[in-house]
Design goal:
By secondary structure, the chain is of the alpha/beta class. The chain has 13 helices and 14 strands.
Amino acid sequence: MTKKYPGIKRSTRRLVYGFLRQQPQATRNDVAAALTLSIPTVSKYLAHLTETGLAEEKSKLTPGEVGGRAPSTYAAIADARIAIGVSITRRSITTVAVNLHGRLLASHRFPMAFKRSDKHAQAVGEQVRKLITEAKIEDEALLGIGIAMPGLVDTATGTVVYGRVIDNEGFTAEHFRPHLPADAVILHDSYAGGLAEAWAWGNLDNAFHISLNESVGGSVIFHNEVFRLEDGYPGEVGHITVDPGGEQCYCGMSGCVETVCSSTKLLDAGAQTMEEFFAILERDTKAAKAWDTYTDFLAITIRNIRALFGGEVILGGEVGAHMGPYLRDVWVKVENMALFGEHVKDYVKLSKQERHPVAAGAALHFIQEFLQDPGPQED
């Protein structure tokens, strides 16, 4: 049975711990002044957070810095809890470990084609355990394992209710759980990517995040939170028609953004990775032609998003993470069709979460849940 802590209120614990997370170090007086709490109350919560391993007492300040008796300072321990994120695509399994400050501690990408099989689920488990060993994560520190996949996920049941991209319809966390060392949840990959982006920026008031990967998804972000619905997912930009009469999409329609802005459209030019594609772009005619066509449709997509949502449009995913030197190509094309004479540079931006955004967002799901009630879960 989990130890109980009489007199500890979860709301106050969240406030005190949240303040510590934002500071390199803080004294009792710093916490009391910032949160308008009494010194005895602050002392109690600092002792509690220290006892439960979420904070630590640091060295005392010198008397000359504060006058009188030198006070102790306290700091949140970033690695006190860690979550694992997994991104599953058609071609690979990516795992990351993320701490309470959202920092990636370790990561791996394992090439493996997705199959609806126990062998694939077992491989996911092996990659998770390998990462846990490498990052030296203790059992009591592990919050959970977020598994991000293409496909619409019913948030009430955790079931993939539409999964034609990689044939995972009907999947729940139970498919993977026998091979995992902790609680797990399945998440829509676009939601995970948007969550990672919101964390990376920290101040997105109104934005639309486009996830430009093997499949194309989107996230609607209001007040730095990803907007979700129980029975679906808003932001399915991949299924807006931009090329009427074009290639048929797996959704049954033709000319969807998914069919023209998938990262595979660039890799088909002869590159194995996005790094390789952008490395050859300026000297390879086939790559340059693919990029020109790709950015034509991406510009139309951005204009449509801007017309519908306003706010910032953030280009993410593996394409967004590598297009930095070539963002101007996108700006120019959007500028030619911009609404009301807007300055495109003001709202078309690149992702700040460059490393494994989908896997990182899957881990951040558990980090975010924990921060709502940081501490042991009393019975």
